[in-house]
Design a protein that fits this description.
- By secondary structure, the protein is an alpha+beta fold.
- Helix content is 22%, strand content 54%.
- Strands 1-2-3-4 form a 4-stranded antiparallel β-sheet, with no helix packed on it.
- A hairpin with a 6-residue loop joins strand 1 and strand 2.
- The C terminus is likely disordered.
């Protein structure tokens, strides 16, 4: 049983560390967050509330096995108890250059199993 567990862990490490990308592969990513805060103030109401919602979406593709280029959009909506509402929309461009961690990382893990 111990050997089977060790073999499964090694397989998971090898499977996740051999990431290879090809030109033309696409990546779709997103992020969503929600923030809320309540504070005591010296105002007549005594409490101040604020909340924000943030969402971002991006689309990228590999122009080479080590270069990822793309674009995206982010949206923010904020509201607080002083009747102030804020909205914003943004567009962004991303460029990511990937570097090798080690030349023989994959082969080193497989050699240790034997």
């Amino acid at each position: 049983m111990k050997n089977l567990l060790f073999l499964c862990i090694c397989f998971c490490l090898v499977a996740t560390t051999k990431a290879q990308f090809e030109k033309g592969q696409k990546v779709i990513a997103g992020q969503f967050s929600f923030y809320t805060q309540s504070t005591q103030t010296n105002s007549p109401s005594g409490v101040s509330n604020a909340s924000d919602v943030f969402a971002a979406f991006s689309y990228s593709s590999f122009s080479s096995p080590t270069t990822l280029k793309g674009f995206g959009i982010n949206l923010v909506y904020g509201d607080n108890s002083t009747n102030s509402i804020g909205n914003s929309v943004g567009v962004f461009y991303n460029y990511t250059k990937l570097e090798k961690l080690a030349n023989r990382f994959f082969s080193l893990l497989t050699e240790q199993q034997q």
